[in-house]
Specification:
This protein is α+β, with helices and mostly antiparallel strands. It is built from four helices and nine strands. The longest helix is centred in the N-terminal third of the chain and has 12 residues.
């Protein structure tokens, strides 16, 4: 990035965007599965309990996840489907909840899914639901303050892409 633009953005952020008071933005960001999978591949360390993770977005707010369990390399890749179950409610609950729809090979894999206990910071499993804490994920990347400007976040899917819609603004005054 151009150093001047980087410096300007850093200054604006440090001043809590005070020079942009009253600004409003509604953003709909389709993120292609290919890009999501590249980002996931870069983020998963070699020591992670899962490897070769591949997402496929589908209709109906469903995401198919294909992966290998590192400790059970003898097993074929597992497939699970995640359903967007609950949208974040900002600011009180910046958590996206995904429901694990078990079936097929997953139901036979049972103990191989203990890797769910080793999810990274910001992700936790409660029963058959995966809670994605947006505040923790952003904070871990030094971007936690940006959630202060978000008024609503909604995650949906279409075949081949995850759609993230954000409504945000800088309070006037």
């Amino acid at each position: 990035m151009d150093p001047r633009v980087d410096a300007l953005l850093s200054r604006l952020r440090a001043d809590r965007f005070s020079d942009l008071r009253g600004a409003r933005a509604d953003i709909t960001l389709p993120i292609a599965d290919r890009l999501l999978n590249e980002l996931i591949a870069e983020a998963i360390p070699p020591t992670a309990p899962v490897q070769d993770v591949e997402l496929t977005s589908r209709d109906g707010n469903r995401i198919r996840v294909r992966f290998k369990v590192a400790a059970a390399a003898f097993l074929p890749p597992l497939n699970v489907t995640l359903l967007v179950d609950q949208q974040p409610r900002l600011p009180e609950s910046p958590t996206l909840v995904l429901k694990l729809e078990a079936g097929g090979l997953l139901s036979m894999a049972g103990s191989a899914l203990r890797f769910l206990d080793a999810l990274p910071l910001g992700l936790r499993v409660v029963g058959d639901r995966i809670h994605v804490d947006l505040a923790s994920l952003l904070a871990a990347r030094g971007l936690g303050d940006l959630l202060d400007y978000a008024e609503a976040v909604e995650v949906t899917t279409v075949p081949g892409a995850l759609i993230v819609a954000v409504r945000a603004g800088v309070r006037a005054g």
